[in-house]
């Protein structure tokens, strides 16, 4: 029978500690970026049996949600981050999606639970009561308190300190020592300690945060989700397409584009200066990752939907039944756009200038139908986007 704890003395041996963490918690629970968490492990040891019985009372959950929200807002202000998408409320929308994924697959899901992720939450005051209501419903289904506590810490902290690009960059576009996920782990582990989480449960949460890594940093092993929980958090992170089509477009797709454009513009200039010194294959890969016109962007979104359906939805029991139709609906709408070459080709010819204008005009618009009726949007683009509104109208 495997050992369920490691003594404080044994934890001082990094090889033994790494082996124990990887074998019993998961490969993504190592390394440990939080010095305070590591000191705690070396002082108290690591006992796996403390994790499962742990649970937060309702007031503690509310306090944790408020604390994580304030932390995210504070770091955004301190670092001068003005993200269009990767902001504090994104973490709460991911939390609600993750909690819905915890619903037992052999129990019929109430309609209101299924619909909880299918709306935009623009303020903590609207998201918090919905999250608590889903938690109440999960507790009635005897979902363990430790599962709910782990999900809270992971989802609410997974994008702490996000700078808006594919990797964590400074104001000049230079790669910072800690990625988004590293930054989250270092600071969110402290939150787990503050709220009395057992160390093993904190490490499980940190593994979930690391599993959401999408960008592959050169020189590092590629991160992949390694268990059902990690697959669930990575799906919850990318399932903004659970929203109605018009809201997905203006609240998720275009804001993410808006965040990436400055990084692409900067990198395009750098590549032009560095192209003679770069490896040809690396140069080709870098250029392929920079989207320069609206046609390329719609092709990229279509490819992302194919990826989500094949590699994010299908590994999770019940997930395809829950959100498969949402993904296929968006895929069909994007395919419809791509098929209208008569409208799309003239827009593609405008290159990045039209792409940037498109991002500015539609980023976080609350009423796509009303925005399209305004006269400053290209008539061809307006016609391409009308189906995103019409499909939503048909739902009502």
Features:
single chain, 396 residues, mainly alpha, 19 helices, globular
Please, could you describe this protein's structure?
The protein is an all-alpha fold and 396 residues long. The chain is 65% helix and 1% strand. Strands 1-2 form a two-stranded antiparallel sheet. The N and C termini lie far apart (57 Å). The model has no long low-confidence stretch (mean pLDDT 93).
Number of DSSP-assigned strands: 2
How would you classify the helix and strand content by structural class? mainly alpha
Approximate shape: globular
Helix-strand topology string: EHHHEHHHHHHHHHHHHHHHH
Low-confidence stretches: none
Taking the alpha carbons of the first and last residues, their distance comes to 57 Å
Beta-strand level of the residues, as a percent range?
Answer: under 5%
Number of helices: 19
Round the Cα radius of gyration to an integer and report it: 22 Å
What order do the strands of the largest sheet run in, or round the barrel if closed? Answer: 1-2
Largest sheet: 2 strands, antiparallel
Share of residues in helices? 55-70%
Element layout with pairings:
Elements: E1 5-6, H1 8-11, H2 14-24, H3 35-44, E2 46-47, H4 58-79, H5 88-101, H6 111-115, H7 124-140, H8 145-157, H9 180-194, H10 199-211, H11 228-238, H12 245-274, H13 280-288, H14 294-313, H15 319-339, H16 341-348, H17 351-362, H18 368-372, H19 379-395
Antiparallel strand pairs: 1-2
